UniProtKB/TrEMBL annotation:
It comes from the Bacteria. Belongs to the CDP-alcohol phosphatidyltransferase class-I family. It comes from Mycobacterium angelicum. Keywords: Lipid biosynthesis, Lipid metabolism, Membrane, Phospholipid biosynthesis, Phospholipid metabolism, Transferase, Transmembrane, Transmembrane helix. Residues 259-273 have a biased composition (Basic residues). Residues 259-278 are annotated as: Disordered. NCBIfam families: pssA. It catalyses: a CDP-1,2-diacyl-sn-glycerol + L-serine = a 1,2-diacyl-sn-glycero-3-phospho-L-serine + CMP + H(+). The lineage of its organism: Bacteria, Bacillati, Actinomycetota, Actinomycetes, Mycobacteriales. The chain crosses the membrane at residues 20-38, 105-122, 142-161, 167-189, 201-218, 224-241. GO terms for cellular component: endomembrane system; membrane. This is CDP-diacylglycerol--serine O-phosphatidyltransferase.
Length: 290
């Protein structure tokens, strides 16, 4: 009987996927710091593009960590530090080098912006461990998030690249805009977390069409697209404030799904004219004691 040679089992070499989210965060830091290098070389377009890349990586690393069940305390700390670099230090330096290096007040306003980003991130991290917040608080940011602040900053460079010199590139307007952005980040104004929004089925086709238009605009008119995004974000703020106030007054819907909440809000809106007319006539609801 001939002995068959033993075949050694193949050893499968697998990559530790738990490192992937942290690797994406490190890459985002590299993109942010490289954006500063391009700004110093007087190349604002690659600098803006790298800030956008850092923002995309920042949006993806947390989701990848949740999908792979790779969330860790170290990853959270790296992510927070990356946000401070990519959306605080980097936009401040890029805008200063590109637009404000000729004026002493320029350094003051970008310094204010960078400090406000750090304060905003510190408050956000502290609120993550606050168990006293109501359930609906997870659906809102407190103040403008740091990535939105970075988009607001690079939008100033986009105006100059699109239209050249003008009042939009004056030191007065730049200081006003950067100061306003900084104060919005450390304010207590609620702003909606868009990943918590539920899209109704009948809105799916129009939103996909808008996405296609935005993709075309990103190629043809990228600077105008940045300002469309900025203006749309600012316009959503009153709706976010109203939504949070409504949720605070209706704890019975805190655990409901978005579809059920919308039904309750529609019912309340339909009932409002009736309540107003009853109040004008001095009437009260049946069953209510005088």
């Amino acid at each position: 009987m001939i002995d068959k040679p033993r075949v050694r089992p193949r050893v499968r070499r697998t990559v530790n996927l738990h490192l992937l989210p942290s690797a994406m965060t490190v890459l985002s830091i590299c993109a942010g710091l490289t954006a500063i290098k391009f700004a110093l070389d007087h190349k604002p377009i690659p600098a803006m593009a790298l800030i956008a890349v850092a923002a995309i990586l920042d949006a993806l690393d947390g989701r990848v960590a949740r999908i792979l069940d790779a969330q860790s305390r170290m990853g959270a700390e790296i992510d927070s530090l990356a946000d401070a670099v990519n959306f605080g230090v980097t936009p401040a330096l890029v805008v200063y080098v590109t637009l404000l290096s000729k004026w002493p007040v320029g350094w003051m306003v970008v310094l204010l912006y960078a400090v406000c980003v750090v304060l905003r991130l510190a408050r956000y991290n502290a609120q993550q461990d606050d168990g006293t917040l109501p359930p609906y608080a997870k659906e809102f940011f407190v103040g403008m998030p740091a990535p939105a602040g970075a988009v607001s900053m690079i939008g100033l460079i986009g105006l100059k690249l699109q239209f050249g010199e003008g009042w939009w590139s004056s030191v007065g307007f730049l200081a006003f805009w950067i100061t306003g952005t900084s104060l919005l980040m450390v304010s207590a104004i609620p702003m909606k977390k868009f990943h918590t929004l539920a899209v109704p089925p009948n809105w799916a086709a129009p939103l996909l069409a808008v996405l296609a238009i935005a993709a075309a605009a990103a190629v043809l008119e990228p600077y105008l697209l940045i300002w469309i995004i900025i203006i749309s974000y600012v316009c959503h703020i009153p709706f976010a404030v109203r939504s949070k106030r409504w949720l605070a007054r209706h704890p019975e819907v805190w655990d409901d799904k978005p579809k059920q909440r919308r039904a309750v809000r529609r019912a309340h809106r339909r009932a409002q004219p009736q309540r107003r007319s009853m109040a004008r006539l001095g009437l009260r609801k049946p069953g209510r004691r005088l």
